[in-house]
Automatic annotation (TrEMBL):
GO cellular component terms listed in the entry, alphabetical order: plasma membrane
Domain of life of the native organism: Bacteria
Official protein name in the record: Nucleoside-binding protein
PANTHER family, alphabetized: ABC TRANSPORTER SUBSTRATE-BINDING PROTEIN
Matching InterPro entries: ABC-Purine-Binding, PnrA-like
Organism of origin: Desulfuromusa kysingii
Keywords for this protein: Signal
Stretches assigned to the ABC transporter substrate-binding protein PnrA-like domain: 25-303
One Pfam entry name: Bmp
Signal peptide positions on this chain: 1-22
């Protein structure tokens, strides 16, 4: 009996110690665009809302439309000084600012989205969005009648280039004659400029559009012209119900709830996370009923193969724009090579902007 009582006291002490170290989570988010953009920032904010439902998350806040650079450093520092113990910076261009502030506030957990740097208290996270881009390329290649597909692209960074290439691989897998013409906007959020770029692609015969931007402007251009379009970051069908075919989308709540739980339990450590579709972070929006059943079946089969690691998007043979084999049969690119991708594959029309 005495041993049992001692054992119960030990268990109680351990439970009390664990609860004593459990932290309330106060989380802050830095956004590069407005939460109403319908895409990138909207998706991150949906993740914040999901995380905020956890009982130990006592406060969340966000600051939207923060310019990358010195302004970001100032904003992140301000939040660190206000007592937030988990800070998310959600654009590639916030990376160096996050490193700078993290090095000054060692007791705060920082998470940076889409970058490659870490510190003792700063992790980075992203998803294998190119998997969704590849699947949406299969849809686009199947739906084009002109074999002319347009792509409105933001900045020529590896993330965007990788997505264009994955999309084009999907297109050419089902339609080897199709090409993907790229127009750069050099912006993440500029609906007017994005729409102009989309219109320029429609003017030269594109009948399906895709994009890597933060707003639905490209889809709206396609809607006005009676053409098809692929969304980005979130399910954008409400903005172009007739044009919308599908979209690679984010479910950031999967990671945000995990990070908050780890901070709460005092088990958070900085990691480099690149989550695939099997985690649920990256998804494909439900396909439009305009997409034939056979194409829907093919996409579902390919998605399952990706999730089970039975195939790779970037598997040889892969040719460059000149038609030369740059990845032979039986080879795949490493994550390091994918993360630094700076070339276009065969089938892409356009050059990588300065």
């Amino acid at each position: 009996m005495k041993k049992m009582i001692v054992g119960l006291l030990v268990l109680f002490s351990l439970a009390f110690a664990a609860s004593a170290y459990a932290k309330d989570v106060k989380a802050a988010f830095i956004y590069v665009g407005p939460v109403g953009d319908g895409g990138w920032t909207y998706a991150h904010d949906q993740g914040r809302i999901a995380m905020a439902e956890l009982p130990f998350v006592t406060k969340t806040t966000f600051i939207e439309s923060v310019p990358e650079g010195a302004d970001a450093t100032r904003v992140i520092t301000g939040l660190a000084n206000k007592g937030y113990n988990l800070i998310f910076t959600t654009s590639f261009g916030f990376m160096d600012s996050t490193v700078e502030v993290a090095n000054r506030f060692k007791d705060i957990a920082f998470e940076h989205c889409s970058g490659y740097k870490t510190t003792a208290n700063m992790g980075n996270y992203f998803g294998r969005f190119y998997q969704g881009k590849y699947l949406s390329g299969i849809v686009a290649g199947s739906m084009t009648k002109s074999d002319n597909i347009g792509y409105v692209a933001a900045y020529p960074i590896p993330e965007v280039i990788r997505g264009i290439n994955a999309f084009t691989i999907g297109v050419r897998e089902v339609n080897p004659k199709a090409t993907v013409k790229v127009v750069w906007t050099q912006t993440w959020f500029n609906p007017g400029l994005e729409k102009d770029a989309a219109d320029s692609l429609l003017d030269v015969g594109a009948d399906v559009l895709s994009m890597h931007q933060d707003t639905p402007a490209t889809l709206q251009a396609a809607e006005e012209r009676g053409k098809f379009a692929i969304g980005n970051d979130s399910d954008m069908r409400q903005f172009a119900p007739n044009a919308f075919l599908t979209a690679p989308i984010w479910d950031w709540g999967v990671l945000y709830k995990e990070f908050a739980t780890n901070v709460h339990n005092d088990t958070w450590t900085p990691e480099e996370i690149w989550a695939g579709m099997e985690t649920g972070v990256v998804k494909l929006a439900p396909l439009s009923d305009k997409v034939p059943a056979a194409v829907q079946t093919l996409v579902a089969e390919k998605q399952q193969a990706l999730m089970e690691h039975k195939m790779q998007v970037f598997a040889g043979p892969i040719k460059d724009q000149a038609g030369d084999v740059i990845l032979p049969t039986g080879k795949t690119y490493s994550d390091k090579e994918l993360l630094s991708m700076n070339f276009f594959v065969e089938g892409v029309q356009g050059s990588i902007a300065e």
